[in-house]
Amino acid sequence: MRQLVAGNWKMHKLRGPAAALARAIAADSPVLGCDLLICPPFTALAAVAAVLRGSRVALGAQDCHAAESGAFTGDIAAPMLADIGCSAVIVGHSERRQYYGETSAQVRAKAVAAAAAALMAVVCVGESEAERDAGRAAEVVRAQVMESVPDGFEGVVAYEPVWAIGTGRTPTLDDVAAMHAAIRQALRHRLGLDGAGLRILYGGSVKAQNAAALLAVPEVGGALVGGASLDSGEFLRIAAVARRG
Ligand code: PEP
């Protein structure tokens, strides 16, 4: 399966630096065989969309509202993201679950809204350190998949252990394999045969130096990259070791 390398820029980059970073990534992308996605902050989407037009790099946002439109001050609807040039959106990132109390039911509603706007949803799941220490990682993540993934889902799931995000720590390769196998099983349970072909990304402190090992783990369909996606060289070195097909 062709792997997807996605960059989550979080709340970083004004329009100028965002366009410059996108330009550097797009310039090198023709030699890369994997799928590439970058997710800048909302305010930089238009500038980055202009840079990526005609390139192989897809544009995504970091969140959307579940409603198509309405009185939701400060929020952004999925059709608005499609309108600005996005083809994907991250939903249920652990920072949204943690800091804004997003539930899996809300995440599922956002994934439904994304699909209705023809956006590929990247649904994030992952256990906390306390849940892992209690031996509950697989159980917690399985429940998140069952509750966050809507019927007929055609997007991507990203497994991101909360304790590995931005910390420089990663699970062992055996743990990554076990969690991805558990997620695959949950997707099959949730979606039947359709759950067998969906990509499951690994995210959490992916860097150029550990990418080859992580991307070689069975059932890893790519990477969701935070900090390392803010440097074009580092991001492209990760993409260079991803599978082409
Ligand atoms: C993320 O926030 O999705 C992430 C994986 O961050 P980092 O790569 O910095 O751990």
Structure description:
- The chain starts with a strand and ends in a 5-residue tail after the last helix.
- Helix content is 42%, strand content 15%.
- The protein is globular and about 45 Å long.
- The longest helix has 19 residues, at 173-191.
- The protein is α/β, with parallel strands linked by helices and 245 residues long.
- The protein has a domain at 60-197: TIM Barrel (Alpha-Beta Barrel), CATH 3.20.20.70.
- The model has no long low-confidence stretch (mean pLDDT 97).
- The chain contains ten helices and eight strands.
- It has an eight-stranded parallel β-barrel with strand order 1-2-3-4-5-6-7-8, surrounded by eight helices.
- The protein binds phosphoenolpyruvate.
- Residues 8, 160, 165-166, 203-206, 224-228 line the site of phosphoenolpyruvate.
Give the overall shape, derived from the CA principal axes: globular
Low-confidence stretches: none
Any idea what the CATH architecture of one domain is?
Alpha-Beta Barrel
* Number of E-state strands: 8
Oligomeric form of this entry? Answer: single chain
Beta-strand residue fraction: 15-25%
Please give the largest β-sheet.
Answer: 8 strands, parallel, barrel
Bound ligands, named by name, code or SMILES: phosphoenolpyruvate
**What's the number of helices?**
10
According to CATH, what is the class of one domain? Alpha Beta
Query: How far apart lie the N and C ends?
Result: 5 Å
The helix content is 40-55%
Strand order of the largest sheet: 1-2-3-4-5-6-7-8
Task: Give me some keywords for this one.
245 residues, TIM Barrel, 42% helix, 15% strand, binds phosphoenolpyruvate
